[in-house]
Amino acid sequence: MDDINKFQEIEKKLQFLASPGIRPGLARLSHLLLLLGNPERKFKAVHVVGTNGKGSTASTLSSILKESGYKTALYTSPHLVSFGERLSIGGEEALPEMWERALGIIEMGIVSSDRLRSDPPTYFELITAAAFMIIAEEDVDIAVVEAGLGGRLDATNILSDVILTLITPIGIDHSEYLGNSLASVAKEKFAVMRPEIPAIFSGGEEDIESIFFDTAFKKGTQAQVLRRLCSYGTLHISFEGTDFYVESECLCADYHTPLIGTHQTENAALALAGACVLKFSSKTKFENITFPALYNGVISVKWPGRFEIIKKKSPLLIVDGAHNPHALKRLAENTGIIYGSESFNMVVAMMKDKDISESLDIIKKMGTSLYCTQVPGMDRSLSAKDLLAMAEEKNIRCAGKWEDPTLAVEKSLGTGKDTICCGSLFLSGYIKKHFDD
Q: How far apart are CA 380 and CA 398, in angstroms?
């Protein structure tokens, strides 16, 4: 059995063991980890939280640490194509056998516990427990851990030895769990900060930064906003990546990241600032982080599904994980820079629990032709029919609806125009699986 099939079997086992849905809270996971010997206490971690840009920031910092010679674990979510994408050790995906062993021990723990049999952990809690077991057993120097929902009750917030918190831009998402205002979301996100542990926030509106500093003061966190640590800006964006500069006491150079977009400048700058904190902090002492490691870490980072060109022969096929208004605004900004007045098509699917109306308002301003679709086999996905109806209500130029995303893509590419698939990471993964060169 190859690794892909093994990971599919692992997913089936997870779904069998897990309780359905999202159920925020740390009690179930805390009890499970206690039965497992508390692996979350056995490694140092950088916790990356926020709304958008978490994965790009986490993968960039992980790449820098790897280039510095540190054995680094990277835990992210969700995956695009294969479950194995969620955890890497030293730049390589954790082997299926590692997951199988961890889940076997977890299953025995659940079976032996009356409490967990009556109130089983969720899918994400099980994955997180298994990942922490693997990380602890691999004896890594450091783990970079991306939060899920990213609030105080997120499963990853159970980490014990966090040495740095990085907070990416805040936007409204998962409002049923985090609140439906920017302030309420920010309070939930900032609640993960730890006493006496450095935290860097990408920054935002003045009232959001006030909440950040107020929360940090109450918790005794060493907090700073990114722009107060360094100045940074985008120099050039193309299909090859993003050129940018960062200037500070320890960072004064031009860099290139293969990740595309002005927002990737901010994500990379946050990762670079985090690396400098790790190097110079008296508590962390990651002294092997050097300028060549910073530069090589940024230039060699890989993070799929974010303005990723998966069909490189014209017309291009691009997948982007933008799935909320904040991320779609960034996508609109970047396509405006790259394409200018040149037109392109968009294949879009969205989840029912997202702000679809505002997202469509942003897509309308982009002036593209919209191909409405849905994610097969996913109840959360808005139907192509309903998405088309909402888009037409807003007078967006629509090419039609397709229940099968591959047909929507083929129809769009048939016009000879570049095609961008967005609106859901699940759509990006589906398209990538079927079309990746």
A: 22
Centre a 10 Å sphere on the Cβ of residue 13 and count the other Cβ atoms it contains.
Answer: 16
Contact assessment for residue 174 and residue 352, using Cβ atoms and an 8 Å cutoff: no
How are beta strands 308-311 and 252-257 bridged, if at all? unpaired
Residue 327 CA: distances (Å) to CA of 72, 173, 190: 28, 10, 20
Q: What was the pLDDT predicted at 179? A: 54
CATH superfamily entry for domain 3-299: Mur-like, catalytic domain (3.40.1190.10)
- Can you say how many angstroms the Cα of residue 124 is from the centroid of all Cα atoms in its chain? 14
Q: Give the per-residue pLDDT at 153.
A: 87
The residues spanned by each domain of the chain are 3-299, 308-435
**201 strand-pairing partners:** 167, 225
Q: Could you tell me the two tokens for 142?
A: 């450091």
Residue 1 scores a pLDDT above 90? no
Pairwise CA distance, residues 17 & 121, whole Å: 8
pLDDT digits (tens, 9 = 90+) for 295-314: 999 999 999 999 999 999 99
Cβ atoms of 150 and 176 closer than 8 Å: no
Tens-digit pLDDT profile for residues 346-372? 999 999 988 899 999 999 999 899 999
Give the SS3 label for residue 316.
coil
Determine if the pTM surpasses 0.70: yes
CATH number of 308-435: 3.90.190.20
Express as a percent the part of the chain with pLDDT over 70.
97
> CA–CA separation, 214 vs 152, rounded Å?
16
Reported for 173-176, long-range contacts at CB under 8 A and 24+ positions apart, including other chains, are 173/51, 173/52, 173/323, 173/324, 173/326, 173/354, 174/149, 174/353, 175/355, 176/353
d(CA 184, CA 77) in angstroms, rounded, equals: 23
Given the DSSP bridges, would you call strands 72-75 and 87-89 parallel, antiparallel or unpaired? antiparallel
Matching fold, domains 3-299 and 308-435: no
DSSP 92-109: EEPPHHHHHHHHHHHHHH
pLDDT-based confidence at residue 125 (cuts at 50, 70, 90)? very high
Report whether pLDDT(175) > 60.
no
